[in-house]
Amino acid sequence: MSGLNKGVGKVEVTLKWDPSPIGAAAHDLDIIAGVYTADDPYGPPAYLVHFDSRSPDGTITLSRDSRTGQGFGYDEAMILELDRLAPLYARVVVGVAIQQGAGKLTFGAIANTGVRVREGYTELAVHGFDDVAASTAATVVEFTRDGPDGWSYRSIRRGFDADPQTFAAQMGARTA
């Protein structure tokens, strides 16, 4: 889905990919969430949630972190309780970064990559990374606070050629 949708509260973002071939270094993809304040929604993130961590207030948690992609279906999962976020925060951007420990690796070099955003059993967005195949990181969804109407979301696939730290600092910047 690419439209703007209202009223999401608690969502799950999950990630899947196939393991690397036997004898090759493991592919490690990571979900990253950047949380932005209402007074600077496109500035630096107020905080990040990634790599088996959680937000300071417990509203965003990485509940499953896969380092290899082994397993069935979606192996990595992040829960975002947007309806519990303090009013100070008005924007959350979620992305995926590929760890680059064994040399440059892009989405196009990893088989069966995909991301799914759900609220309960309702799929809000499901897609692969074909449109950012040459990238090492990509944004996947943006949530924005709409005052008393709650939170809206929109799918945003924007590729980056950056390591995870650089991506985390840039992922929420305003697009040109």
What's the order of the H and E elements?
Answer: EEEEEEEEEEEH
Biggest β-sheet strands, sense, barrel: 6 strands, antiparallel
| Secondary structure tally, helices | 1
Structural class computed from helices and strand pairing: mainly beta
Label the overall shape: globular
Average pLDDT for all residues? 86
Number of strands: 11
Contiguous low-pLDDT stretches (5 residues minimum) are: none
Name the strands of the widest sheet in spatial order. Answer: 1-11-10-7-3-4
Description of the molecule:
With 176 residues, the protein is mostly beta strands. It is built from one helix and eleven strands. The protein has one helix at residues 164-170; strands spanning 5-8, 10-16, 29-37, 47-49, 60-64, 76-81, 89-98, 114-119, 122-127, 137-145, 151-160. It has a six-stranded antiparallel β-sheet with strand order 1-11-10-7-3-4. A hairpin with a 2-residue loop joins β8 and β9 (122-127). The protein starts with a strand and ends in a 6-residue tail after the last helix. The mean pLDDT is 86.
